[in-house]
Amino acid sequence: MPTTLVTGATGFLAGHCVDQLLKDGHTVIGTVRNPSKAERLAEAFKSEVESGKLELETLKDIQNEDEFEAIFKKHPEIDYILHTASPLSFNVTDPEKDMLQPAIRGTTAVLKQAKAHAPNVKKVVITSSIAAMMNPDPSHVHNEHSWNPMTREQAAQKGNPVANYVGSKIFAEKAGLEFLNDEKPNFSITWINPAYILGPGITLDLGAINASNQLISSVLESKLGEEVKVQSGSFVDVRDCARAHVVALQPKFDRKRLMLCTAKVCTQDIEDICNKIPELKGKIAVGTPGEREKQLSKSIMDPSETKKLLDFEWIPLDKSVTDFAKQWLEIKQ
Ligand code: NAP
């Protein structure tokens, strides 16, 4: 069975990637930088850690090529890489240092060192984002071939953490493509471009809920009568997103971008779903039921190429939200 490296293994999405790889029989090496998060992850996969099916390796900074070199030299058996690690926080002081460089250099570091020291690697799956595909033209039909036209200068704009994050995903994706074209490594790349990733965590720390699930937690934390800030976009369940990363290891996905967007979502949808959960009904914000159409994003999304290629039964929004809410409630009680 193959050995697969997962970067940023303590992340929300990566936890599910580790879970699904282990269930598919892979031996998994996960890179971690935060000891207490690593401990929590090791506890969640206790028997796999004990049996050696899951090994955690410290990688303090994804930009550090020496750290990657050491990991690849220690594990020359690695067959596949899921590169999920990238900064996802809107607390940005220095756009280059906090967001753009770790995303871009982190991508080139893993690719460069894999080419140099990991002779068995056949595929690198890189987590990009639907943000790298979004076009401000309201008539644009977004699909697997769309590119966000943001410039490198716009991406580095101070005081605009959303642009910094979006830019980090665009230019990291482009750096990977450039590497593939210029360096012609023995492996190929597949990019996964998810919309908001929602759903339960393998581990969940209520003090550090990942950016996308805050769409749900903002409703869970609200009080009856309060107004929750409206957000809208598209979503994919975290388990489908992880499944796509694993399926994408197959050669038929070489060089493809998979656009993961199950359906549109807005705050009103989350309020409607959460208000059907008996423990929450009558205690949290209700929004304006029936007004979801007003909140929904007007962007035209066409992920039909990906849906045909993946042929998944996509997890619907009510399951993603309910499963997260139940996990949140269990910890809260
Ligand atoms: P997450 O929980 O914040 O995971 C990110 C992971 O990257 C964490 O493990 C983090 O380590 C690690 N990391 C960040 N910067 C690092 C650095 N400089 N050096 C080493 N490790 C670093 O976020 P997520 O939601 O799972 O996101 C995973 C991937 O999906 C990211 O590439 C993100 O851009 C992409 N994505 C996410 C969404 C979404 O809605 N969540 C949508 C589209 C794309 P720590 O655990 O120590 O913080």
Structure summarized in a few sentences:
Helices cover 42% and strands 16% of the residues. It has 333 residues and is α/β, with parallel strands linked by helices.
How would you describe this structure to a colleague?
The protein is of the alpha/beta class and 333 residues long. It has one domain: Rossmann fold (3-Layer(aba) Sandwich), CATH 3.40.50. The chain contains 13 helices and twelve strands. A seven-stranded parallel beta sheet has the order 3-2-1-4-5-7-10, sandwiched between helices. Helix 1 links the parallel strand 1 (3-7) and strand 2 (27-32). Helix 1 (12-23) packs across helix 9 (238-247), helix 4 (65-74) runs parallel beside helix 5 (95-117) and helix 8 crosses helix 10. The chain is globular and about 60 Å long. The termini are far apart. 45% of the residues are buried. Bound molecules: NADP nicotinamide-adenine-dinucleotide phosphate (NAP).
Report the sheet with the most strands, covering strand number, pairing sense and barrel closure: 7 strands, parallel
Counting structural domains, the number is 1
Order of helices and strands: EHEHHEHEHEEHHEEHEHEEHHEHH
Give the spatial strand order of the biggest sheet.
3-2-1-4-5-7-10
Helix content: 40-55%
> Ions, cofactors, ligands: which are bound?
NADP nicotinamide-adenine-dinucleotide phosphate
Oligomeric state of the chains present here: single chain
- Which structural category do the helix and sheet elements fall into? alpha/beta
At the fourth level of CATH, the homologous superfamily is NAD(P)-binding Rossmann-like Domain
> How many strands in all?
12
> What gyration radius follows from the Cα positions, in whole Å?
20 Å
SS summary, helix count: 13
InterPro entries: Epimerase_deHydtase (IPR001509), NAD(P)-bd_dom_sf (IPR036291), NAD(P)_dehydrat-like (IPR050425)
Family: Belongs to the NAD(P)-dependent epimerase/dehydratase family. Dihydroflavonol-4-reductase subfamily.
GO molecular function, one term: oxidoreductase activity, acting on the CH-OH group of donors, NAD or NADP as acceptor
Organism: Yarrowia lipolytica (Candida lipolytica)
